[in-house]
Amino acid sequence: MVYTVARYVVVLLMATAVYAQQAGKSTECGGGKKCPASKPCCSQYGQCGVGAFCLGGCDPRNSNKIESCVPAPVCRSQDYKLTSLDGITPNTEYLGDSSKSNWVSSGTPKVYNNQVLLTLSETGASGSGTLLASTSYVWYGKISAQLKTSRGQGVVTAFILMSDVQDEIDFEFVGTDLELAQSNYYFQGIPDCKYDNPFQRHCLTLLDEHGRNITVKSSTYDDYHTYELDWQPDQLTWTVDGDTANQRTLKKSETYNSSTKIYDYPQTPSRIQFSLWPAGSKKNGQGTIDWAGGLVNWNAPDVQSAGYYYAMVKDVNVKCYDPPDGAQVKGKNAYIYTSSVGTEDTVAITDDDTVLKSLLGSGTDMDKDYPHASASGTAEEPEATSDVATVPGLTGAGPGTNGHPGNNGNDGTTGGTGTDSGSGSAASGASGSSSTGFSQGGPANTPKNDASSSRERGVGSSMFAALMALAGWLIL
């Protein structure tokens, strides 16, 4: 049975609490509460800031202005071969240029045998797991991914589409059930429920209508499978290994909500995301832990042999569909919202720029830069310091302008510029390929990570979108 609403609510509350603890403050935005002009962008974590807060995941409904969020790069049809960390940029360095990066990472992605690994360790940069999010968005299309899931109680792998207004389509894989894929969808993060009135969405009755199980014919851990999401304006299909006899189809017409007069159907531009996260963490609610098969076992064979849990992704194919009928097409470079309603008819395609000058910028001040140390006119590195949060999960300023690390020594303000070599809980390797000595077979043929691993740039561990996306969350 697919566990839906209770899990999502519990994880949402847990994720929000953990992030607030990390940031040293309570939730700042969401549910109609907007960010102030001084830190205008509402992240999917319910926190306000600039820079990365204004890029992927920026919620236009709860930011200071709709325009506070940076325009989102349009869909690109492409076959992404994930054979190295080339094209993967840490979220502490990405500024919005999708022509230079295909994916943004949080946590610790690694490479082994021409496959990208998502890692989950008990501590360190991947202590909350690892997330890859596409830099380009998809507004209807066919997305297929070849991946191997992780395994073990409490460990969850996910392949999802998530929009900035929290429309969600996903495959989820619980590590204790390796021949099952859970499919799900949400409109603006709203859980399955009946409402007391069309204007105030207070659940009267919890339903179980969005989730369905799809049988996989062999182990999701041992074998690569191809998982496909065919997302059209009027129909959505989940398919595993091209098996049409075992696929799930949802028609938009089936999602009409007579109370709100709206189709509760995913309908806004979304990022492709892959994540591995500890649903069985002791910090989570009991319902989430039970759904995930129990508490994470940090002494499991995979952790003992490799130093972490892992999932593998080696190929992602994206075929973009045409914009829906009646779409506001005013250009070809970016998606923007024209209203905080956040439905299909409030999305426009424009020629707006998508790239910030620095992580001090926002959609209304794209060229904002860090102040320079000298007014002499010479070319100097800017001082990457700020009193405003620039990267979700970190406090204070993030890394410096155009990817240069900050020079502020305060904890959390440098964007995690420290390095680690070879450790299973090392900082993110998204700045270059890492040879870890990893093997999937288990302790009999899996050597420990060795010290020959290339140096890896830190990301700064945080509560990231893996938890939030999988919580359906972005109902803040």
Short description:
The protein is mainly beta and 476 residues long. It is built from four helices and 28 strands. Strands 4, 7, 8, 10, 17, 18, 19 and 23 form an eight-stranded antiparallel sheet that branches.
Key attributes of the depicted protein:
disordered N terminus; about 475 residues; 8-stranded antiparallel β-sheet; 8-stranded mixed β-sheet; disordered C terminus; mainly beta; 28 strands
Walk me through this protein's architecture.
The chain is mainly β and 476 residues long. The protein is 8% helix and 28% strand. The chain has 4 helices and 28 strands. It has helices at residues 5-23, 286-291, 301-306, 465-470, and strands at residues 41-42, 48-49, 72-73, 78-81, 88-90, 103-106, 109-112, 115-120, 130-138, 141-148, 156-163, 168-174, 180-186, 193-195, 203-206, 212-215, 225-231, 235-240, 248-251, 256-257, 262-263, 270-277, 309-320, 328-329, 334-337, 347-350, 419-420, 456-457. Strands 4, 7, 8, 10, 17, 18, 19 and 23 form an 8-stranded antiparallel sheet that branches. It has an 8-stranded mixed sheet with strand order 5-6-9-22-11-12-13-16. A hairpin with a 4-residue loop joins strand 11 and strand 12 (168-174). The protein is globular, with a radius of gyration of 21 Å. The two termini are 27 Å apart. Residues 1-25, 194-207, 373-380 and 395-476 have low confidence and may be disordered.
